[in-house]
Write a structure and sequence with these properties.
alpha+beta, BirA Bifunctional Protein, domain 2, 2 domains, binds 3,4-dihydroxyphenylalanine
Length: 339
């Protein structure tokens, strides 16, 4: 009998059904009233007490093993075998969370969309730069404070390789590598060695614009930025340009928009001035053109650069820059937009 039990055990072990029907068939063959294992119990009655002790244990083991294996097979097949599963079509679906775009991406895309409507094309630049493209080609004097250790993250000990401190480095590449007309946008990360606070960070995002062609004037620059401000902050938005200094533009200006909160009347966001600064800009300095091999007597151009965090904070009334980098879902989930 022990031999017979072993044979059946082997059959159960080898059994591998492909559907529920085969499992049921197997169950009837082995465990039903006339099944093979039940038959063993009938034969068992004819044994003497000594044999019963040994064989009884083995039959019970076989029965248990068979029952367990069939149950296991059944539950694994129930999921894949449609013919056996009753689908409740009225059951609500499992909901899953849709991600939202990061506010910096939303605003970056919005800025890009505004300028591409004016014919600007998005370009790309490296975050690791050399001194030439970040500073020298942009007319930064050797002793300019922006080159200082306190501002710039240098990578190489000779201070030639660095993390770009502004997206203006892309201008330097474009002017020496492309032929005018150039109308480009360069969004990306920039790095500065600054203490992290509500208003400053060692990593942030800028977007740079450059337009080089014959007869580009300061009026073109002003008109372009006026269009941008109205598209970005609303039709009633006004801009004003204040004279400023950047090594790579001459003349240079800083641009303010009428306060996005009070509309220009004065409030605590604009510190009662009615204006908020949004970007730096100017006409490309002839020195920069010459270094890049573009004839300043033939071509002129304008450039502008803005911080994406700054624009986002003004647009959404965000007071702390650090929120952009903390990935707190309670903050990020508020920006549920299609942009
Ligand atoms: N690169 C400047 C900065 O990081 C911003 C800037 C000013 C960019 C004037 C320009 C420009 O293109 O013309 O502060």
């Amino acid at each position: 009998m022990i031999q017979r039990i072993k044979e059946l055990q082997k059959l159960v072990e080898e059994f591998s059904p492909v559907n529920i029907a085969e499992i049921e068939e197997f169950r009837l063959k082995f465990l039903s009233k006339k099944g093979l294992i039940t038959e063993l119990f009938n034969d068992f009655r004819t044994l003497n007490p000594e044999e019963k002790k040994i064989v009884g244990v083995e039959i019970n083991k076989l029965k248990q093993f068979t029952t367990d294996k069939l149950n296991e097979l059944k539950s694994s097949l129930v999921v894949s075998d449609n013919s056996e599963v009753e689908l409740d079509l009225s059951r609500p679906g499992d909901s899953f969370k849709l991600g939202t775009r990061h506010p910096i991406s939303i605003v970056r895309n919005e800025i890009i969309s505004i300028f591409t409507r004016l014919g600007f094309v998005v370009g790309d630049g490296a975050e690791i730069e050399d001194d030439d493209h970040n500073f020298s080609k942009l007319n930064f004097p050797d002793d300019h404070p922006a080159r200082d250790m306190q501002d710039t993250f240098f990578i190489s000990s000779d201070m030639n390789v660095l993390l770009r401190t502004h997206t203006s480095s892309v201008q330097a590449h474009e002017m020496s590598e492309l032929k005018p007309p150039i109308r480009s946008l360069a969004p990306g990360r920039v790095y500065r060695n600054e203490a992290i606070s509500a208003r400053a960070h060692c990593l942030f995002h800028q977007i740079e614009g450059l337009y080089v062609d014959k007869n580009v004037s300061f009026a073109d620059l002003k008109q372009t930025l006026d269009y941008f401000a109205k598209e970005m902050f609303g039709e009633k938005t006004k801009i004003r340009l204040r004279p400023s200094y950047f090594p790579f533009t001459e003349p240079s200006a800083e641009v303010d928009v009428s306060c996005t909160l009070c509309g220009g009347k004065g409030c605590n966001v604009c510190k009662e001035t009615g204006w908020l600064e949004i970007l730096g800009c100017g006409m490309v300095d002839p020195n920069v053109f010459e270094t890049a091999g573009i004839d300043p007597n033939v071509y002129s151009g304008f450039a502008f650069g803005m911080g994406i965090e700054r624009i986002t904070m003004l647009k959404y009334g965000i007071k702390d820059l650090r929120l952009f980098f903390e990935n707190d879902l309670r903050f990020l989930e508020q920006f549920n937009t299609a942009y």
